[in-house]
Every structure is written in C-alpha cells, then in structure tokens.
Amino acid sequence: MTKKYNTPEEAKQDQQFHEALVELICQLADDDLLMSHRGSEWLGLCPHIEEDVAFSSITQDTMGHSAIYYQMLEELGVGKADNLAHLREPEEYKNATLTERVNGEGHYMENPDYDWGYAIIRNYTYEVFKKVRLDALEQCSYIPLADTAKKIKREQFYHLYHWEIWIDQLAHSTDEAQRRLNAAIKKTWEDVNSLFDLGPKAEEFVRFGLTPPGETLRETFMSVMKEKLENYSLLWPGEPASLEATGRDGLHSTEFVDAINHLSEVYKLAPQANW
What are the Cα distances from residue 247, in Å, to 92, 192, 197, 198, 208? Predict the structure, then answer.
C-alpha cells in the first residue's frame, strides 16, 4: 500500500520522496507559468474584445495556478515562491517545450503577427493534457497536492470548455478555418510528446505514488484527443514523433530564455520588495 504524506513536514522527512515531489511540482508550476506568459502576450491582439477579456481571465487563472505550486515549493523548503518563479537559471526550469513556443512571428511590442489558430489548438491541447494530469493527481500520495488538484479542476473546467467552443465553431464554419486548424494541429503535434516526459525522476514519481507513468497519461490523452478531433471533422495527425529534448531536462529554446527574461524584468529590479 502506498504511503500517504499529509504535510510538508512529513514529506521533508523522507529525502527521496521530497526530491521526487519537488521535481513534480516544479514541472506543474513551470508549465502553467509559461502557458500563462504566452497567453498574456495576446492581450489587445485577440480577434475581438470579448475574447480579449476571456483569454486574459484564463491567463490570470493559469498564472494563479503556477503561484499555488510555487507556494507549495516554498512550504517544502525549496525557496521563496517569487524567487523560484523569477530568479532561477534557465536550465533549472522544467516546463515542457510546447509551453514555451512563441505565438507566431514578430514580438508583442513590435509587429506581432501571431497565429490565432495555433493559439486555439495549443491551448486546447494543453488543457486536455492538464485535465488528464489533474485527474491523476487527485490520487497523489502527497495529500496537499491531491487537494490542490481538486481545487484547480474547478477553474480548469471552464478553460477547456472555452477552447472547445472555439474549435467547434471554426471547424464547422469554412474550409479556410478547417485548413488553418489542421495546420495548427500539425504544428502543435511537433512538440506534444514533451508533455508526457516526466523527467529524470519519472520512476520515483510512480514508485512513490505521485503520478501514473508518462505513457499512461499519454494513452489517456491520445484517446481523448482522437475522439474530439474526429467529432470536429479535423484530421488526426497520428502518432507524434519522439523528441531528443522535452524541456523537462532543463534544455530550452532561445525563445524561452527571452520569455523568462521579459517575465522577470520588473521583479529583478527589486526582488526584496513585497509583490
């Protein structure tokens, strides 16, 4: 029977469990941090003002989820939550590659030429994966994380629903809309396997009952996505290619480094201030 850990103090008493738990929560926090940052770059650029408000709300919620995870890391003795979000070296971040990809050509402050089709599909793909992972985390052996997963799911339900509505409306509209969505699926699929890599402590995650194997998460995700895309009359892209680097190993793109520097720019001016 898998041992349950009810408090940060209990987790810290078991070094191997503590190290695995910290690795997992870093992945959770960093995934949401990067997705929320890329979402924030759409502010003022969405197709209409109602979507600007909705996407900003989703982005704010997602940033809040990452803040919850960083606070959990602080309680586990890893460091100050804000410092963990903003002051680590690039190789210390454990987010999946998919979450750090740029929104399109240009820069938010200079000639942005972003791809709304990619925004829809990437966010939908991530939210499907996030639900699969949160469902699994409800059975996590670290009780505070299991409870947190249940709370986050209440908001995440609406995030997933939002992107489902966009896909449903566009997929059943014009040939051009379908073409663009299928192109975005193909592009997203290039990085999708990065989501299922559990990193260097994957075996410990499973052994300590923190999360199921990455392959189990992947199979559940693929089953959901295939059914959904078929229902939307979109092309199933098949099995995604394996990746040499997924981000879980600390290897990131130059775009990631730029994103983290931009995200942390203000905080680094006065890291001792109360934010």
Answer: 10, 12, 9, 10, 23
Strand partners for 96? none
Give the CA count within 13 Å in the CB-facing half-sphere of 63: 15
How many Cα atoms within 13 Å fall on the side-chain side of residue 226? 10
Q: Kindly report, residue by residue over 70-118, the tens digit of the pLDDT.
A: 999 999 999 999 999 999 999 999 999 999 999 998 887 788 889 999 9
Dihedral sign for Cα 216, 220, 226, 232, please.
negative
Are the CB atoms for 256 and 34 separated by under 8 Å?
A: yes
pTM over 0.90: yes
3-state secondary structure the chain: CCCCECCHHHHHCCHHHHHHHHHHHHHHHHHHHHHHHHHHCCCCCCCCHHHHHHHHHHHHHHHHHHHHHHHHHHHCCCCCHHHHHHCCCHHHCCCCHHHHCCCEEEECCEEEEECHHHHHHHHHHHHHHHHHHHHHHCCCCEHHHHHHHHHHHHHHHHHHHHHHHHHHHHHCCCHHHHHHHHHHHHHHHCCHHHHCCCHHHHHHHHHCCCCCCHHHHHHHHHHHHHHHHHHCCCCCCCCCCCCCCCCCCCCCCHHHHHHHHHHHHHHHHCCCCCC
CA–CA dist 179, 268 (Å, integer) = 43
Superfamily of domain 9-235+248-269: Ferritin, core subunit, four-helix bundle (1.20.1260.10)
Given the DSSP bridges, would you call strands 104-107 and 110-114 parallel, antiparallel or unpaired? antiparallel
